[in-house]
Write a structure and sequence with these properties.
Length: 412
């Protein structure tokens, strides 16, 4: 693709070509899930029409084709995040399942009483609940790093909270509420010095910026396909090979075994040890096609475009006196997510009123209740951008925002 043109990209996404409440649909809920380009829809269709079978199980042609498609998708994921080998890539249902896998398998094996597990207060519930259970089961201690007023983790907080008692640090690369990009490199450095492992939740970062797991040097990295143009029900767990090899299986069943006896079994090598039962091959095919699409456009261009959109939107929003932004107000270390409130308007009202302008934004606690409590906000509205959003989309969004208070009966 010679140059980045969101208007042209938008044409690849059939769902975006419709009116909602008489206005062109402006989809700004990409943090929740993203839409699929025809290329992804077609790849799934083609797989179903030509190659569907149960992978890794049969000697017949369809099973062989399904196996090839599945393995090819895994190869694409491997290069997309620059893992060392395909064995380090496990397909799961989503980021939540990947995080559960780490907490149950690694956590139950290696965490002991009084060990510390460290999160940021901004984590998504999916990166809190598995650790709460692990801490309860193992009598370990769950701790949090807190944020400054701009929604960033201060370096002093990292240095204080990561100490010789810390065994796991699990942190989102980008906050799904504030859009802040956390200093993962510094966290990994400090954690490794202290003998802890680091889990990076890349659910919000992987779709929007170049990720290189070898550069990051994180021990585990997780993300979901549906937030990066792929179908729901396919997710990824990356783990360093030596760690994955040291861990017991999470789920057990067909295809993850080597030998099964009446009382005992041995397990298949990586990555199959962690992939019990029939896998989501069409999801994997869709994820592979989504990766092709994103790479064709260029992650660097996507990131740059989203920065432009955030800058444009923030500039307009900061000029409206009754709009309050939660999270970084400058472009430093932030991605394409803006959480906001409007004086005297409930975020659900904001979302409903924007919907009448054809604009889809999220409202609520965004699966981050501890953060909401920390911010002293019961809820916010959230606009989240992607490669197909345009400057005109932001204009329509801002026009909607300017009408929220009027709709609710306030003078201005
Ligand atoms: C930062 C973050 N982590 C984890 C998740 C969970 O993703 P999924 O529901 O696909 O498992 C989300 C979803 O919004 C998220 O934003």
């Amino acid at each position: 693709m010679p140059s980045f043109n969101p208007e042209n990209l938008k044409k690849d996404f059939p769902i975006l070509n419709q009116n909602i409440n008489g206005k062109p649909l402006i989809y700004l809920d990409n943090g929740a899930t993203t839409q699929k380009p025809s290329q992804v829809i077609e790849a799934i269709k083609k797989y179903n029409e030509t190659s569907h079978g149960n992978p890794h199980r049969g000697a017949h042609q369809l099973s062989i084709r399904a196996t090839e498609e599945y393995d090819l998708a895994k190869e694409k994921v491997k290069s997309f995040i620059n893992a060392k080998s395909r064995e380090e890539i496990i397909f799961t249902r989503n980021a939540s399942e990947s995080l559960n896998l780490i907490a149950y398998s690694y956590g139950m094996e290696f965490i002991e009483e009084k060990d510390e597990i460290l999160l940021a207060i901004s984590e998504h519930h999916s990166n809190i609940l598995p650790w709460q259970k692990l801490a309860r089961d193992k009598k370990a201690i769950l701790k949090y790093m807190y944020l400054d007023e701009e929604g960033r983790i201060p370096i002093a907080e990292i240095e204080e909270k990561i100490n010789s008692r810390t065994k796991i640090v699990s942190i989102a690369q980008m906050s799904n509420v504030l859009g802040s990009i956390h200093p993962v490199e510094e966290i990994v450095d400090r954690a490794h010095k202290m003998g802890a492992i680091v889990v990076v939740d890349g659910a919000q970062s992987t779709p929007h910026m170049e990720v290189d797991v070898q550069d990051l040097n994180a021990d585990f990295f997780v993300f979901s396909g549906h937030k990066m143009l792929a179908p729901m029900g396919i997710g990824v767990l990356y783990g360093k090979k030596e760690l994955l090899e040291s861990m017991p299986p999470f789920l057990t069943g067909g295809d993850m075994i080597e030998y099964v006896y009446e009382q005992e079994s041995t397990f298949a090598p990586l990555p199959f040890k962690f992939e019990a039962g029939t896998q989501n091959v069409e999801g994997a095919v869709g994820l592979g096609a989504a990766i092709d699409y994103l790479q064709n456009v260029g992650l660097d261009k996507i990131e740059k475009h989203e920065k432009f959109l955030v800058e444009y939107a923030l500039d307009k929003m900061l000029g409206i006196p009754y709009v309050n932004i939660q999270g970084p107000k400058d472009l430093n270390n932030r991605g394409g997510i803006i959480s906001f409130t409007i004086d005297d308007a409930h975020p659900h009202d904001i979302s409903t009123i924007l919907d009448s302008y054809g604009v889809a934004v999220r409202a609520g606690h965004h699966c981050a209740q501890p953060l909401m409590r920390y911010l002293k906000e019961p809820a916010t509205a959230r606009a989240s951008f992607y490669l197909y959003n345009t400057k005109d989309d932001i204009d329509q969004f801002i026009e909607g925002i300017k009408n929220v208070r009027k709709w609710l009966g306030y003078g201005s």
